[in-house]
Write a structure and sequence with these properties.
216 residues, alpha+beta, five-stranded antiparallel β-sheet, 27% strand, globular, disordered N terminus
Length: 216
Amino acid sequence: MFKKGFISCLLAAALLVTLGGAALADHEETAPARETVQEPIRDYAPGTVPAQTGAVQSMSPAIHGVLLAMLHHGADEFQADDTALAWESLYNMLSLYGQLDERSEYQDSDHLLLLSETVRDYTAALDVSFDELGPLPGALSDRIVYDAAADSYQVVCGNDSQAQFQVYTAEQTAGGLVLEGALVSLTDQTDLARFEAALQPRDSMFGYAITALTLT
């Protein structure tokens, strides 16, 4: 079975997230100070960085996927009941990060095969019920296809090589974790979009779910 820690370790190598440096506030603190961290984590090993950093790395696929979908749809905030937006967010997660799941399988260099249970696990990070998503939107039919016989999804692999997803600050709150960051152009290092995301703990593969995400 896929482990939560496995995601964190692999994402550290696959995703540049600005996090490192100062420790974040502990869960027990009632009035945690917001920490601005400046150096990206290059090499991650369990126990070498604050616990919240692992949560941020684990949830980075979900936040990144939602942010890209919001920009494509021209949305200022993530609405879980917008099934077209939720499906595209899910597709972005699977296409960019699905290969990190040990249950995934490459069919060729451009297509990834993911079991239905894997897709359900990723959906939980969006705080969305998979059963309420409904059928795949026609707009995604050229990028993700469901095979009922195999109960699996064939996903066209994505590529976001023109931009870098970064988290700048993480604040522990009574309800979970609040992150601020941006999608940054790799061409000129300008912010393409800045965001604030609220995460709450969940008993799921990712450990958290996005309860709010807005462009700032």
